[in-house]
Structures are given as C-alpha cells and as structure tokens.
Amino acid sequence: MYHVLIADDEAVTRNGLKVFPDWKSLGITQVLLAADGAEALRLARQERPDIVISDIRMPKLNGIAFAARLREVIPTAD
Questions:
Q1: Nearest to residue 3, comparing CAs of 52, 75, 73, 54?
Q2: Cis omega (within 30 of 0) on the bond before 59?
Q3: In sequence order, which residues have a C-beta less than 8 Å from that of residue 35 and are 6 or more positions away?
Q4: For residues 78 and 43, what is the distance between their CA atoms, to the nearest angstrom?
Q5: Which of 4, 40, 60, 67 has the most CB atoms lying inside 10 A of its own CB?
Q6: Per-residue tens of pLDDT for the chain, all 78 residues
Q7: Beta strands at 51-54 and 2-7: parallel, antiparallel or unpaired
Q8: Cα(33)–Cα(47) distance, rounded to whole angstroms?
C-alpha cells in the first residue's frame, strides 16, 4: 500500500494528476492533494507519503522550501 502526495496551487493541475496516471495500476492506494507547501507539509507529517510530486512556485511555502522541510519530517534512509 503506497501513498502519493501532490502539491500544486493550480487546482486543474492537482486534479488532473489525481486521475492520471492510473495510480491503482501502479500500486498507489491513496492520492493526497495539497494546495500549497504548508498544507503539503502538514499532510506529509500526518500521512508519510511514499511519493511526493510538488510544484516549485506555491504560496505559503514554495516547493524548494517544502522539499527541505520534508527531509526533516521524513528523513531518507542512507
């Protein structure tokens, strides 16, 4: 069971990525959506997604800052 988190401030992009690709065929059971970096970070803390797709330019917390903070929340294994 894998989760993907999609963070993008454009609703059309967010919702488009939610339905394409066929996530279930890829083993993804849950698609989480966030409208900005701060919401994405909050969801990442709660849900600990396996895959994250993020826009760079977003309000509240841009994609670069979000990625840096995400590494603190969900550190990668070395």
A1: 52
A2: no
A3: 7, 8, 9, 11, 14, 58
A4: 24
A5: 40
A6: 899 999 999 999 999 999 999 999 999 999 999 999 999 999 999 999 999 999 999 999 999 999 999 988 887 744
A7: parallel
A8: 11
